Amino acid sequence: MKRRKFITVAATGLAAGSLAAPAVAQAPGAVRWRLTTSWPKSLDTMYGSNEAFAKRVSDLTDGKFEIRIFAAGEIVPGLQVLDAVQNGTVEAGNTLTSFFIGKRPAYSFDAGLAFGMNSRQQNAWMYAAGGLEMVREVFKKDNLLLFPAGNVGVQMGGFYRKEIKTVEDLKGLKFRIGGIGGTILQKLGVIPQQIAPGDIYPALERGTIDAAEFVGPHDDEKLGLHKIAKFYYTPGWWEGSAQDSTLVNLTAWETLPPQFKSAFEVAALEQNLMMIARYDALNPIALKRLIAQGVQVKQFPRAVMDACYKATQETYDELSAQDEDFRRIYTAWRQFLAESNQWFRVAEFVLDSYRFAAKPL
Amino acid sequence: MKRRKFITVAATGLAAGSLAAPAVAQAPGAVRWRLTTSWPKSLDTMYGSNEAFAKRVSDLTDGKFEIRIFAAGEIVPGLQVLDAVQNGTVEAGNTLTSFFIGKRPAYSFDAGLAFGMNSRQQNAWMYAAGGLEMVREVFKKDNLLLFPAGNVGVQMGGFYRKEIKTVEDLKGLKFRIGGIGGTILQKLGVIPQQIAPGDIYPALERGTIDAAEFVGPHDDEKLGLHKIAKFYYTPGWWEGSAQDSTLVNLTAWETLPPQFKSAFEVAALEQNLMMIARYDALNPIALKRLIAQGVQVKQFPRAVMDACYKATQETYDELSAQDEDFRRIYTAWRQFLAESNQWFRVAEFVLDSYRFAAKPL
After folding, report:
1. Is residue A99 one of the residues assigned to a domain?
2. pLDDT band at residue B13, thresholds of 50, 70 and 90?
3. How far apart, in Å, are the Cα atoms of A15 and each of A21, A43, B12, B27?
């Protein structure tokens, strides 16, 4: 019954042909899907990567597999993407699955964990060390198939009206932040707020909140927060990298011919690479503009970082005690991370350290 | 004339059908290509990524576009890949284009430059900041189209029989290294040697050379160099990241239908992401094994790094003076790198620094 809902078989020129039965049997009919996202169209990088994804799938299938992309709110609100895909309202959705860790804590291994893997480590774990399989098992419980489909890298720590000089300064801070970061910061007295992107500016202006984190310079600049809060903190330690994902309703997925599955998979993978490439090209330019407008880039003090790191470990221990999926994946994840860090310290980090400290070539 | 050589149109079931002329006109015939590589099959990551690439192209085209992969020496030697593609001996080749900078210095911007971009910066520059277009203009002069198709990340600095304690220790050092690193090190008295992978071990064992760099722990371990030289130096500063590329004969490319072009392009992009993911998963394990066998990981002393950095800048100035293509691209490349470094220092590097120094989660 679901199948009929998901597939639109258009009569192609080929299928309309009156002979060549074996060829017709092999030729896939046209498929039209809807993919809803958690992003407004103004997020050109996150929303835009979905348009590029749909174009690639279409090109790879000679236009036979068409995926229409919808912004947050067009079909369902941005924070209902997972439910909409699970329920079959749409066949696919693109989101940051950390929005949904209230449903299943183990979802956090998909988007990324606080003090967790950087984007390269995340890809290595997901694609080449069994991470994707482990994460997919969790999503499968909700009839979902998951594809990594983008990455932001390390985000900024947000805009603050006042400086954060000590751990005490976090107490009572009304801070716009979602996901696991909010859960962790509560331990240090922060009052986390979930606020939709369009509502952040007025909330910060009116003083309903004291600070807000969003993404990085390229996206943050568009919100205009730098006009009302001058301190721009780094790093956004709540995600070593923020991985964007595309979710597919498993029942819908199983109706696809192998060629279409391959096209979908590789097009998602392409955006996993391309989204961070675009961010890495756009963020430096936006950061320069923000600094030119008087933004002061500040680093969280060491004592604040240490307190956050400790609170993070406590949170992971608690989640491991509460949730079997979290515990199982966390054990594998932390072992991979520890070994990976050892290697990154030896080569990448040593050269990056030298390069970043040196006078430009 | 060339076209006939490149394409094998097999009679598909569809084409053999007696009706439906418009459908037949749209249905692409089977295409068979040969792709030769610079890699022995023992390089499972570099050679293997080409097998995965061919499988993806086949899956995306329902088996109609078949690409056969050849190891170094099967059709042409590893260092003749570029010529073989240019001459039309094969339609495509996979290599590190830094092997061919003697032909055109500007090729170096493809594989990566000494003290240059890390793999994320390289992707950002290539895909999202005009780098790929600039690099392709150079390869087009040789009737070649280029696709980034893999990355190794920062390599190791190689195995040395004796420690490198001062800049003086580089004088007269017979060092197996190719590409721009060899050119730069000559300024400091190093005698660079180009030696095929299979010949490195006996050369180091007999003392024909004093040191040898190859790739990173995963590939280096297989050569067994750690059995005869205990000092394993970091970083391999001669490439901020080593990008592997697939070259296509432009005349052959133009015969492909759009769907096959799209499949080829996205499959190369997939391997660009997957190769480094595999290396990042495999290198930590190999490094641990090497250390367990007594290998001593050493960092090049600061004075040595500074001398190499200075020699690098001199080399770039000389190449800019000699070669117009190099000068033009270098100007754009260094500006992008300087701005990118500013941004990476602010977010990624700050969090990586904290994470790598902290006690594991």
Report:
1. yes
2. very low
3. 9, 40, 17, 13
